[in-house]
Amino acid sequence: MKQISNYPKVARDMFFAQLNWTFGFLGVMLVIHIIKIVLALIQGGDIDSFYNAMFVVTNIYMLVIGIISIYFLPYYVEHGVTRKDYFKGTLIAFGGLAITIPFITYMISFVERVILNAMTSISIREPDLNSVILEVDSDIVGDIVQAIILTPYVDPQSHWGLSIAIFSLNIFVYYLLGWLISTSFYRFSTVNGIVSIFIALVVLMLVDTLLRLSLDLPILNTLSGLNVLPLGVTLLVLLLLISLTLWSVRSVTKKVRIKM
Fold it and tell me: Does the keyword Transmembrane helix apply (predicted)?
């Protein structure tokens, strides 16, 4: 008798559970942003767009919920869901989340621009987030920090579709790396878990650099040697890195012992 696949239910449950968290996160960020707008009205000056503000902080948010995602596994296994279905369902759920967040953020930012342009004299700053890496002293620690905080950016005012796609890919990778770290700590020792953090940092820096190369953006000095790679090779290596990380998570979760 063929076993029933439960991954669609897992995907639906995890997507809506994490979407509820995301609405709370978006709500808090929107309140903070509105406060900044009010202060700008009172004191004068300009502000960053909601899109740019979310672009910077959403990476950390996705990393955190990626770390949390492993704790769904015992619940599902306890209710008869296979580890394979958990993996597939989680992958679909955070893929959907990675698409939904940038789209919602863009729509809020679009409404923000319309209202501010029509009703106030506040101007929206358009910082070049990609050029920041050229303004900071280059060393390995600085490059790691910049790779974590400032992911490759495309201005939504010039290429909104590409901008949303890059935003989605960035936060997809952060969720994936959080998932990798949490599964390593869950299955292995603390030492191996710490090793997974270093692996995640290496993957993050490589993905960041390869994506920047693909978009013809400034790259981190530490990995400037990759500048010689042609576009086809760059995209292939980027795909292989993400695929290898997914394979690693699947390999770990496939044999993990459930802690009840």
Answer: yes
Q: Which residues contact 190 (CB under 8 A, 6 or more apart)?
A: none
Please give the tally of structural domains in the chain.
Answer: 1
Beta bridge mates, 125: 48
- Euclidean distance between CA atoms 38 and 8, whole angstroms: 44
Beta bridge partners of 48: 125
**Under the phi-then-psi rule, with left for phi > 0, alpha for psi from -120 to 50, and beta for the rest, what region is 188?**
beta
pLDDT in tens, 140-157: 666 666 767 778 888 888
Q: Running along the chain, 260 residues long, what does each successive block of 10 average in pLDDT?
A: 72 92 94 89 81 89 92 85 90 93 94 82 70 59 69 84 92 93 83 87 88 81 72 88 92 74
Residue 176 counted as domain residue? yes
Q: Give me the domain span that covers residue 119.
A: 7-255
In a domain, 260, yes or no: no
CA distance 44 to 123: 10
